[in-house]
Amino acid sequence: MADQGLKAMAGTKAVKLGHFIVEFATPGIGHILKSAGCDFVLFDLEHSGFGFETVKSALRYFEAADLPAIVRVPSREYHHIARAMDMGAEGLMLPMVGSAEEVRHIVASMKYHPLGRRGVALQVAHDRYRPGTVADKFTAANRRTTLFCQIETAEGVENAEAMAAIEGVDCLWVGHFDLSVSLGIPGEFDNPKFKLAIEKTIAATRKHKKALGRLVPTVEQGIDIYAEGFDFVCYSGDVWVLHNALAEAIAKLRDGCKPKKEKGRRGR
User: Fold this and answer.
1) Which residue of 62, 78, 95, 180 is surrounded by the most CB atoms within 10 Å?
2) Which of 47, 79, 113, 243 is catalytic?
């Protein structure tokens, strides 16, 4: 799709294709993903071990490639939310969001006055170190920042509609593994309980015209969930793509490089 920010992306049901980064925060990563055709990147702090110094550097790599970045912070604590915003995260993802009350706290933490209570830090990373008036800075930041709430618990499913209705929420994002665990059916994605939870989440986003996202391990599953109503489709992660592509190639090489059997016996 044409280059545009996450806020604009979330306003359309056209498919947005991205990739999950949990290991490789190298200087070229933004350009590699952009060249591969990605529309966005999901940069993880929950499971990766990355710290905010790494986030600050990685976001410059994504900016250089004009690749919008969603940063998943490890918790709903104010300092995690506000620091990600100050580092320049265009999108913010929160794990295991369960209630409208939690969503209102998140929105207040990531937005400037009058939409929130985010602490003021201007002419730093998030506004690319440019000068400007306070009013203009607040307006631009509030317009740009995009919120992705992860539905990963039974509570989140029950409150999905209430959360989707809140101004400031741009996308609900299904965390399928954690959701299956919360439902008591770990990894059983064909279980009727899991399918019903997905249906409720889809219905919530449709009713309130919000985007819907999910990570998928295969191309086929990505196509399937788009048909169901998911529009942010995040294909796999850096570790798994590298591992699987390398394992497949090494296996083929090993098979093709086996010693050739001698034809007949010598010395007869």
Assistant:
1) 62
2) 47
